[in-house]
Design goal:
Blueprint (H helix, E strand, L loop, with lengths): L3 H9 L2 H6 L12 E6 L5 E2 L5 E8 L2 E2 L9 E8 L16 E3 L6 E4 L4 E10 L15 E5 L1
Length: about 140
């Protein structure tokens, strides 16, 4: 069975089309890494009060929205949602928080229960880079 990427290569005869078909146009370093520094995966958070989430980034810089500078972008925190389309602007709603002034941490409050958190870098227009730079998804519990 062929993957969708392999089918594109076979049917379109071009690896470049496959590699870039589902990502934005702004290049990112291949070794760029974004991660959630805190909370840790599996962390139990006290309900009823805000908690800090801090963002880590390696091999890439942070720049605010509307500032186009090579190898930079800004953070988007995804809460209880899968990764969005990689070739369109990242949505802005309660599940997709934008940090367009270059913030590297935030305070959030979540209702009791299990929640997922994930970071996704966006370019100056909130579109994921090519290749996309996103963290692993972590799960926390608010009690």
């Amino acid at each position: 069975m062929f993957s969708i990427c392999q089918r594109l290569v076979v049917s379109l005869s071009g690896l470049v089309l496959c590699a870039f078909a589902f990502a934005g146009e702004t290049p990112a370093p291949r070794n760029a890494e974004v991660y959630i520094g805190w909370p840790n995966n599996g962390e139990v958070i006290e309900a009823g009060k805000p908690f800090r989430v801090w963002f880590g980034l390696r091999n890439m810089g942070v720049a605010p929205k509307d500032v186009k500078f090579p190898n930079t972008g800004h953070h988007h925190l995804l809460i209880d949602t899968p990764l969005p389309s990689m070739d369109e602007p990242i949505p802005s709603d309660r599940n997709h928080l934008h940090f367009g002034t270059g913030e590297t941490e935030t305070m959030i409050e979540l209702p009791p229960g299990k929640h997922t958190l994930q970071l996704l870098m966006g370019d100056d227009k909130h579109i994921p880079h090519n290749p996309p730079v996103y963290s692993r998804k972590i799960t926390i519990t608010v009690k």
